[in-house]
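Hi support team,

I'm opening this ticket because the web form for multi-chain structure prediction keeps timing out on my end. I have pasted the exact lines I submitted so you can reproduce it. The total is 878 residues across two entries, so I didn't expect it to be a heavy job. Is there a limit I'm missing, or should I split the entries? Thanks in advance, R.K.
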Amino acid sequence: MPEPARHRIVVVGGGFAGLQAALKLAKRPVELTLVDRRNFHLFQPLAYQVATGALSPSEICYPLRTIFRGRRNVEVVLAEVAGFDLDARRVELRPVAEGVPAPATLEYDSLIVAGGSRYSYFGHDGWHAHAPELKSLEGALDIRSRILTALEAAEWEPDRERRCAWLTFVVVGAGPTGVEMAGQIAEIARDSVRDFRRADTAAARVLLVEVADRVLTGFPPSLSTSAERSLRKLGVTPLLEHTVTDIDGDAVTTSSPSGEQTRYGARTVVWAAGVAPSGLARVLADADADAGEVDRAGRVVVEEDLTLRGHPEVFALGDMVAIRRGDELQTLPGLAPVAMQQGRHAARMLLARLGGRKTQPFHYRDKGNLATIGRARAVADLKGMHLSGAPAWVTWLAVHLWYLIGFQNRLLVLTRWAFSFLTHGRGARLISGRNQPQP
Amino acid sequence: MPEPARHRIVVVGGGFAGLQAALKLAKRPVELTLVDRRNFHLFQPLAYQVATGALSPSEICYPLRTIFRGRRNVEVVLAEVAGFDLDARRVELRPVAEGVPAPATLEYDSLIVAGGSRYSYFGHDGWHAHAPELKSLEGALDIRSRILTALEAAEWEPDRERRCAWLTFVVVGAGPTGVEMAGQIAEIARDSVRDFRRADTAAARVLLVEVADRVLTGFPPSLSTSAERSLRKLGVTPLLEHTVTDIDGDAVTTSSPSGEQTRYGARTVVWAAGVAPSGLARVLADADADAGEVDRAGRVVVEEDLTLRGHPEVFALGDMVAIRRGDELQTLPGLAPVAMQQGRHAARMLLARLGGRKTQPFHYRDKGNLATIGRARAVADLKGMHLSGAPAWVTWLAVHLWYLIGFQNRLLVLTRWAFSFLTHGRGARLISGRNQPQP
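Hello R.K., no limit was hit. The queue was backed up. Here is the completed structure from your submission:
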């Protein structure tokens, strides 16, 4: 007797949301296909540590095939999504690179789309070349090479003003990523004093440009104040209520609240502001000409149970969605816990539907918010309990180690962090990538 | 009373030879400047493990500044050498990248040049695009992405012949690097069976093309036989006495001893043959129009004490030199131990000369030769004692762990190796680098 056909699920996106959904569903007797443009899951909250040479890429990137190695009912497809045919229940794919084959279409019974977000340069796409972002592994490695090259260049730059530009680092955006990045750059500069002979790296300027009136706007004001104090102690200068009006590779121009323009000579700029939903949000909305809808930012609108209106078999989640709550649209912060909870919720609702049960609305359970600023400095907002300093930092360490995938990676990261803490060193200070001299 | 001017030493090249010389000299009251095009020392004997995802770049690359962190008498300069003015005792530099400042010249009292070697494509420079080498970190990462992409592509390639080309891996050159690379690719293919659903990765072909009549020509014939047997067991097909006549991205064409041409469909090719001395060898020889001399391969000719004829203050060492022994020219194998011994010898001779003592000829003390082939398989030639199998492999592990720089790196590498051995997994299987989809 032939086995009855199993329910076919396609999950698009191996970020936090898609991965959590896939992990939960993979344990059930379903046929699951996970599609991603990259062959690995990036633990994005620690990407800034790759950018500062504290961690190595493979310590925060996990090959998707390895994660699902034991699961014969899971397929991993390396491809880009070109479109969705919601009536035919089909995902259209294209290869990630010319000549690399991928299936043209995937048929599904249920679909989960979790395309995530990407950095947005507010229409100034030209800034990308001068101010890499931290959303991709390549962006993080590019930033690492730029920071280290700037310190090397400062050592030999004879002109005072140009040397100052090599030693000026600008971080745009004071969310958790921007704050963590600014703090680490300040620490690198301070710790590098022993590495250089001419340049006074301790005199490096780190400017943190933020349009709001405080850093870490996702945190309670008291923790923002505490974080700002820690940043200043490390030598970071927050430029609050400032906007960036130009980035040209030699300098960053900012505009103050009074409209005053200042041009800072700066060779190294990190972009940690302006997130936009993945382009897949619009592709998905357009797939249903009648009911498909995006909000002003381009997020696809989903029902409270995270399904698409009129398509109970299609879930969309993570940074690319806005949730319809009655007449309002709710957008949740772009944090890993939100995405992970949505991934698990979508998996549960999908299974409920398969079992003939009713789906439930998604509600984010905010367990807290963490940001680290530097060596033994962090802030934590845990269900109204506000921590700062060492206790917050230990909490940060424990939470991040816990969520890293795989015991081997936890051990490697713990080893690196222990050495960094004890020696003030960073093990992965390599200038690598494009345009390097070859042997 | 002003301190007497210290002896100024410039070391060019942070490979095994230059680094050993610099480490030894740094402990003395001299002013030392180390020049390299990269900001790190590459532990090249393990580059193939980065190419196969077993190790991460930062585990085999050590920032030069960190190595000399505690030494106030050492400067590290990130620059390329443009020329030598031996009369004026000056090294001319140029920046590694446009706009990155570097000193224009460095003055020296003594000079050590250790430019190493680079891969040579025997005049077929076009092959480089299709067959990356293992001399640079970027080459190793390129190979890693290609191997992993080939396995992904094979999974979805509908055409049988093209699928076969994705699953055919050609390694050119059966020296230690080629043998190690071929063995590891065969193991990846075999271990990946559980990762893929359609492609039979265990059916992958690994061809090892070698012009000589045995693999590992630097080893005694009995160990070559043993290594060949291990390779065949792993599924590697050695093509001995074969030469490569074409590499075009889709296929590799070889020529057999009888001149028969065979075209193997193969998308992934690794170049581990044909080493040429660094271009610095000729630049150095040309710096002395009278006495400067290169051999037919382009190596600079040095005296028995590793100095340049007529320039007792200039040492040249490593892969880029040939040693004049009476009327003969001696070239030593391009192995790390040779380079390291020459580095230490040059440092000792330089100090002897400073102390008014006579310099001694360099003699290579061959302590043995090691090559690993795969999981628990290796060959070792230790002062006439021939080992193969597990005992050779344990020796290989111990020697390589010992020579890694820094306790942290030994711990990280040991952790990775232990996990790889226990789980048949490779932690760093990331497809990254140029041309990757960005968020």
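A quick check on our side: The CA atoms of residues 376 and 390 of chain A lie 5 Å apart. Let us know if the file doesn't open in your viewer.
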